[in-house]
Write a structure and sequence with these properties.
By secondary structure, the chain is mainly α. The protein has one domain (16-33, 40-166). The protein has helices at 16-26, 28-34, 65-91, 106-126, 153-166, and strands at residues 43-44, 55-56. Strands 1-2 form a two-stranded parallel sheet. Helix 1 packs across helix 2 and helix 3 (65-91) packs across helix 5. It is globular, with a radius of gyration of 17 Å. Its main location: nucleus.
Amino acid sequence: MTLTNIVARWPGSAHDSLTHSMILTHSRVGNRLQAGAGRDGWLLGDSGYPLRRWLLTPFLNPQSAQQMRYNEVHARACTIVERAIGLFKCRWRALDASGGKLLYHPAKVCKIIRACGVLHNVALRAGIPLPPDLPPPQHYDPEPHPATRHEGYEQGARICENVMRRL
């Protein structure tokens, strides 16, 4: 599970509702997609992210079997990302609460995280296994707060409906 984009700019304790909008406005991927590039795919976000034509989120209150199926498929796809993050934290335990904490200035911690991401991908390509017999990483993921409607919501909702019909 190769990492393709790492945005390490806010502390892990920052609340999701703050980081969701920050990630979208400060990441290259979010900016490219907002500008209309990358029309061949979508990003997946939890319910704390705003629905956009390029960012698909789950239905908050699914009303049909199709919407429930969409949410199931969406959740399964999101677990792949969570698993990749978990493997990344297993390889670099200092990035996980179970392995201690990085006691450096936040700017330096961001550089360490990005360097670990590069080294993680190098290790994957070289076939270097994860350390054996480690407990799973501790993952704190509070329930996201639903995003509010915004410009682009209607277009995102139409795309969500189109994807749902294909499932």
